[in-house]
């Protein structure tokens, strides 16, 4: 709500030219209403999603090279057009667990992102989104946002998870959970339900740990285990239709190396990952630097 759709479409076109087509656009409708009001935005949650739908309609029409006139509920543009359309057109990533979010994703997203819920919940969510997109004559790809703690052995990985848990100050946990309980986000509600604010029974699915969500809003689960176990869980999600994995860990750089050196080669051997760079004929893909 803080930038015009025409300007956003034009900026995206410029980014594509400057980066050689590397832009991916993740659209976030807005945080909590109290946060939005601090920035001068007084729409409620459902209205923000309707505005997002208008925004993405204008952006996509402009990217298609069309001239746009819109007098919508929230946005108005007249004779809007781009001098140069982006090539390629950036893919739009979008998330949200509410009904309003699903409608926008079905009409406008290329990739629907979910936070790291257990596989059975992810399967139900993706099935719902597929059905919504089908009504619009569209198909979606799916991605998932997770943290990861991967080590040479499961014991080492869980020891690291327990080390992090031991560092969570109980008062901080209570304060964070109280704040998150007031959230308007359906996705946040689903994250909180995975652990209920308790330190007990945090492994909610094999190798899926909800401990991160005790002190962090948003994506609150991590894949924890040996490199083989983490690769198994990624394969399990992939079998549900998840093609893109947005991963991080603590500390960020070190965990990226653990994953890149330990898990990616295993995924490559299973045919689930390939290095994005061209592999020279005389070199094996596993010998190349990995990108996370």
Describe the structure.
With 292 residues, the chain is α/β, with parallel strands linked by helices. It has 2 domains: 1-88, no CATH class; 90-273 and 282-292, TIM Barrel, CATH 3.20.20.30. It is 45% helix and 17% strand. It has 11 helices and 10 strands. The chain has helices at residues 5-19, 33-38, 45-63, 99-108, 119-135, 154-166, 170-181, 186-195, 227-239, 252-262, 264-269, and strands at 24-27, 68-71, 76-80, 91-95, 111-115, 141-151, 203-205, 208-209, 222-226, 242-248. Strands 1, 4, 5, 6, 7, 8, 9 and 10 form an 8-stranded mixed beta sheet that branches. It has a two-stranded antiparallel sheet with strand order 2-3. A hairpin with a 2-residue loop joins strand 7 (203-205) and strand 8 (208-209). Helix 1 (5-19) packs across helix 3 (45-63), helix 3 (45-63) packs parallel to helix 4 and helix 4 crosses helix 5. It is globular, with a radius of gyration of 21 Å. The two termini are 31 Å apart. Residues 285-292 have low confidence and may be disordered.
